[in-house]
C-alpha cells in the first residue's frame, strides 16, 4: 500500500517510512501528505515497536509542493481551508501515533518538512542538516503544526525568533536551541538511528506507549492529573506479563524479552 514516493518498510519490529521524491528535496504533494497520514494510521494498529521517519537522496523534506506538474492535480486547486485541514490530519497521525517515532534528518528539513520532523518524538540529525521554519520568506504563516510543536520544543520566545526571521539553522545551532536530540556525522547517522530504534523496539511496548502519551499530555495537565494517569498506567503494567519478564530478567542479569502483554 506504499505511495510511489512514500516507502514503508519493516525489519523486525522497526518500521522505516521514507520520503523519496528525487529532484525536489522530497517536497511533498498533497497525495504524499495523505499517504503519510494513512501510513501512520495503519502503523498505529501494527506490531511495530519503533518507527524511523526519514528522507532519501540526501535530504529529509523541503516542505509542501504547491505546484502541479504535467497536468496533475496538486491538491490545492480548490478549497484551501479544506486542503489545510487534510494536511493537519497528517500531522496528527504522526504526532499521535502510539509507537515511538524517530525523525532521521539529513540535508534539508524546511517549512512543512521541518514541522514533520518536529512531529516525531525524537529528532536525530546529521552534521550537514539544515532546518528552517521558512514560511515568512514565502509570505506565509507557520503551518504543519509548527506553531505548536516548535513552541513546545523550545519555548515561545525562541520559537518567535525562528518564525519571524525564517532563519536557516545548521545542525549545531538546532542542537544549541534544543530542537534536536543529537547531531552525528552524516556517515554515522544511519547506524546511530538504527541502534536507537532497536533499543526502543526492545523495550516494553505497552508501557512505552503509555509513557509517550503521558509525556505528550504533561504540558496541559496538572500534577494531580498526571499522578492519576500514572496510577492507571501502572495498574495496566502491574497486571501484565512484561513486568514479570522485566523483573525476572533483572534478577537473572540478562536482557528482557518483552512481548507487549
Q: What are the salient characteristics of this protein?
A:
2 domains; three-stranded mixed β-sheet; 10 helices; globular
Beta-strand content bin: 5-15%
**Which second-level CATH architecture of the largest domain applies?**
Alpha-Beta Complex
Helical content (DSSP H or I, runs of 4+): 40-55%
The total of helices stands at 10
Main beta sheet strand tally, sense and closure:
6 strands, mixed
Radius of gyration: 19 Å
Instruction: Look at the helices and sheets and give the structural class.
Output: alpha/beta
Shape: globular
**pLDDT < 50 stretches:** none
Overall pLDDT level: 94
Total strand segments: 9
Would you give an account of this structure?
This protein is α/β, with parallel strands linked by helices and 261 residues long. The chain folds into 2 domains: 6-201, 2-enoyl-CoA Hydratase, Chain A, domain 1 (Alpha-Beta Complex), CATH 3.90.226.10; 205-251, Lyase 2-enoyl-coa Hydratase, Chain  A, domain 2, CATH 1.10.12. 45% of the residues lie in helices and 15% in strands. It is built from 10 helices and 9 strands. A 6-stranded mixed sheet has the order 1-2-3-4-6-9, with helices on both faces. A 3-stranded mixed sheet has the order 5-7-8. The radius of gyration is 19 Å and the shape is globular. It starts with 5 loop residues before the first strand and ends in a 10-residue tail after the last helix.
Amino acid at each position: 500500500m506504499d505511495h510511489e514516493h512514500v516507502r514503508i518498510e519493516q525489519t523486525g519490529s522497526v518500521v522505516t517510512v521514507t520520503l523519496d521524491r528525487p529532484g525536489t528535496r522530497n517536497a511533498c504533494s498533497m497525495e504524499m501528505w495523505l499517504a503519510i497520514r494513512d501510513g501512520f494510521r495503519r502503523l498505529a494498529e501494527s506490531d511495530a515497536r519503533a518507527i524511523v521517519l526519514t528522507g532519501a537522496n540526501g535530504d529529509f523534506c523541503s516542505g509542501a509542493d504547491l505546484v502541479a506538474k504535467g497536468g496533475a492535480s496538486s491538491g490545492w486547486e480548490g478549497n484551501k481551508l479544506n486542503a489545510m485541514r487534510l494536511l493537519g490530519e497528517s500531522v496528527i497521525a504522526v504526532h499521535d501515533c502510539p509507537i515511538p517515532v524517530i525523525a532521521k534528518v539529513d540535508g534539508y528539513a524546511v517549512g512543512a518538512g521541518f514541522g514533520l520532523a518536529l512531529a516525531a518524538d525524537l529528532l536525530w540529525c546529521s552534521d550537514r542538516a539544515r532546518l528552517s521554519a521558512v514560511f515568512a520568506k514565502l509570505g506565509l504563516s507557520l503551518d504543519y503544526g509548527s506553531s505548536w510543536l516548535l513552541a513546545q520544543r523550545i519555548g515561545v520566545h525562541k520559537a518567535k525568533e525562528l518564525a519571524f526571521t525564517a532563519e536557516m539553522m545548521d545542525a549545531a545551532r538546532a542542537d544549541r536551541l534544543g530542537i534536536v536530540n543529537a547531531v552525528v556525522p552524516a556517515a554515522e547517522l544511519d547506524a546511530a538511528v538504527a541502534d536507537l530504534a532497536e533499543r526502543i523496539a526492545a523495550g516494553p511496548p505497552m508501557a512505552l506507549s503509555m509513557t509517550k502519551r503521558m509525556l505528550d499530555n504533561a504540558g496541559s495537565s496538572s500534577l494531580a492529573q498526571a499522578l492519576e494517569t500514572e496510577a492507571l498506567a501502572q495498574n495496566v503494567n502491574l497486571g501484565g506479563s512484561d513486568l514479570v519478564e522485566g523483573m525476572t530478567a533483572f534478577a537473572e542479569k540478562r536482557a528482557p524479552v518483552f512481548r507487549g502483554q
